[in-house]
């Protein structure tokens, strides 16, 4: 079995002049890296790290949004014999400090960031810093990347790492509390070869990197497969340029999370209302033209394999993209197993199910319907948390996921909620919110939903309208019609739910939930406890109103 380094040394010698990384620099300028140039900088940075006197396997943090130097830094850290510690580029100062101190990082490599002024207090003053190109101008006491590259001779030879060496510590996004440090070796990371095989990745493929590299999904599905295959990676510059960035890349494999797939859909509906689009797609000749036009506008016309994951994806959303000719497959995995767990497969897709185990992965349902997974990507354990590790990985090597699920006769897994997310109503009935939220999000006018109601007679739902409605004049001029249509949809949904699950109130929120306002994790999952706490004072007043749909 090869490590990331074994593969990239081959690319360095076998395809030195092939494009590797395309980095936007602002104002339309691009910086291009071939494998030769990129590996030269990795070698020079590795040589520099070797001069700092660190003990072997020292933890070195990478704190930046996705960019070319993020990937180069990771390779340099490994070549120098150390361990990388990614830090989410959207964290608050307190979380940044907690991760840097807990991991015992001795150096931080800082790159492109937004809102750095609020983050800077999280960087210990005494912690040495290296500034990547595009790092914040406010970053103080940092040695510039280009200065190091210019004055340092490249590391020679092909430094190897043992498969069972600790390679990285990935901190969980913290949706349920303090982030935990998940330890992965080169062996557990190499298990992501399954994604290379699954999607038949080859040298001529193109992918765009925009989901956080500090998160396991991007490390597994993009970074690891890129090292294995050597294809061309493009980077996104900013939210405002994202469509341009995707169209530049013309990706052949593309992954996103349900929230972003919903935003893409909302953008389509903003230009072409759902009923009109559906009508046009039913006309054979016109349908082909419309499909191409829509996918071209999204930059996704060349995508042969689209991935969705991280949270349940409404079946209606999958159907929307399938109708456009985009093959979308759900994947399921965790930081703790390097995302090497489950995937839907062509010809085996079943609505509501996330697919079957990847090769070498075992699954079973444990007590409380908990999904248990044994994977070649299973972590070494939690950093400095042996007791928690033993709670999470049992004696048979099965990872206790915390997800509730069921398995059909074909071995396909369906996630039915979180073991600890259930809440009890005042009638003593337990409600699993995730499946209800998933069905709410099947309604095209909604973008976010959170179902709650602990100690209430019946549950309630907080919802956020889709962007194409939320940011239009319709919210004011057609509020009554929007509310009436939503009420009708929820009434129909309630008929399909058990009596104790039926929604008493649906509250339309004025603003969306974001990472910045503390209501989403960096991977865009709901921070359920934070949302419930924020709106708890309003709940009694909402229940006192006679209307079923309430505008907050």
Strand order of the largest sheet: 4-3-5-6-7
Q: What is the CATH class of the largest domain?
A: Alpha Beta
Mean model confidence by pLDDT: 93
What number of structural domains do the residues give?
Answer: 3
C-alpha geometry = globular
Beta-strand percentage range:
15-25%
Helix content: 25-40%
Question: Mind explaining what this structure looks like?
Answer:
- There is one protein chain.
- The chain has 552 residues and is of the alpha/beta class.
- It folds into three domains: 232 residues, Rossmann fold, CATH 3.40.50.980; 85 residues, Luciferase, Domain 3 (Luciferase, domain 3); 129 residues, ANL, C-terminal domain (GMP Synthetase, Chain A, domain 3, 2-Layer Sandwich), CATH 3.30.300.30.
- Helix content is 35%, strand content 22%.
- The protein contains 21 helices and 27 strands.
- The strands form seven sheets. The protein has a five-stranded parallel sheet with strand order 4-3-5-6-7, with helices on both faces.
- Helix 3 links the parallel strand 3 and strand 4.
- The longest helix is centred in the C-terminal third of the chain and has 18 residues.
């Amino acid at each position: 079995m090869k490590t990331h380094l074994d593969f990239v040394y081959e690319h360095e010698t076998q395809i030195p002049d092939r494009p590797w990384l395309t980095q936007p620099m602002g104002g339309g300028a691009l910086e291009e890296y071939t494998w030769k140039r990129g590996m030269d900088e990795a070698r020079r940075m590795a040589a520099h790290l070797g001069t700092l006197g660190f003990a072997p396997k020292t933890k070195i943090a990478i704190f930046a949004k996705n960019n070319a130097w993020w990937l180069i830094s990771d390779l340099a850290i490994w070549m120098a014999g150390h361990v990388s510690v990614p830090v989410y580029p959207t964290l608050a100062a307190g979380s940044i400090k907690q991760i840097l101190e807990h991991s015992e990082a001795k150096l931080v490599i800082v790159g492109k960031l937004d809102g750095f002024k609020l983050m800077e207090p999280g960087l210990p003053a005494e912690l040495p810093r290296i500034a990547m190109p595009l790092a914040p101008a406010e970053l103080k006491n940092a040695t510039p990347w280009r200065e190091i590259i210019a004055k340092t001779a490249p590391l020679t030879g092909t430094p190897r790492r043992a498969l069972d060496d600790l390679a990285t510590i990935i901190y969980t996004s913290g949706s349920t509390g303090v982030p935990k440090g998940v330890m992965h070796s080169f062996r557990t990371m190499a298990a992501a070869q399954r994604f290379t095989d699954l999607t038949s990745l080859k040298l001529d493929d193109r992918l765009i990197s925009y989901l956080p590299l500090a998160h396991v999904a991007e490390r597994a599905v993009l970074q690891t497969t890129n090292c294995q295959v050597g294809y061309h990676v493009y980077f996104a510059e900013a939210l405002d340029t994202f469509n341009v960035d995707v169209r530049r890349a013309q990706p052949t494999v593309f992954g996103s999370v349900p929230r972003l797939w919903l935003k893409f859909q909302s953008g389509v509906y903003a230009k072409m209302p759902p009923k009109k689009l559906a009508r046009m797609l039913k006309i054979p000749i016109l349908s082909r033209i419309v499909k191409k036009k829509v996918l071209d506008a999204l930059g996704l016309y060349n995508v042969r394999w689209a991935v969705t994951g991280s949270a349940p994806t409404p079946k209606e959303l999958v159907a929307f993209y399938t109708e456009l000719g985009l093959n979308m497959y759900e994947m399921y995995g965790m930081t703790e197993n390097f995302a090497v767990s489950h995937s839907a497969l062509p010809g085996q897709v079943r609505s509501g199910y996330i697919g079957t185990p990847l090769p070498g992965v075992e699954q079973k349902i444990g007590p409380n319907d908990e999904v248990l997974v044994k994977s070649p990507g299973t972590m070494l354990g939690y950093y400095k948390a042996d007791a928690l590790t033993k709670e999470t990985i049992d004696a048979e090597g099965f990872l206790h996921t915390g997800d509730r699920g069921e398995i059909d006769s074909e071995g396909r897994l369906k996630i039915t909620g979180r073991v600890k997310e259930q809440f009890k109503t005042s009638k003593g009935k337990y409600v699993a919110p995730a499946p209800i939220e998933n069905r709410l999000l099947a309604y095209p006018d909604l973008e976010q939903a959170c179902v709650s109601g602990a100690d209430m007679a019946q549950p309630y739902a907080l919802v956020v309208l889709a962007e194409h409605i939320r940011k239009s004049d319709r919210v004011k001029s057609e509020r009554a019609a929007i509310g009436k249509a939503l009420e009708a949809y929820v009434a129909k949904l309630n008929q399909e739910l058990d009596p104790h699950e039926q929604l008493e109130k649906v509250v339309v929120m004025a603003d969306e939930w974001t990472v910045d306002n503390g209501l989403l994790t960096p991977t865009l999952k709901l921070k359920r406890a934070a949302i419930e706490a924020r709106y708890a004072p309003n709940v009694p007043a909402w229940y006192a109103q006679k209307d079923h749909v309430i505008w907050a």
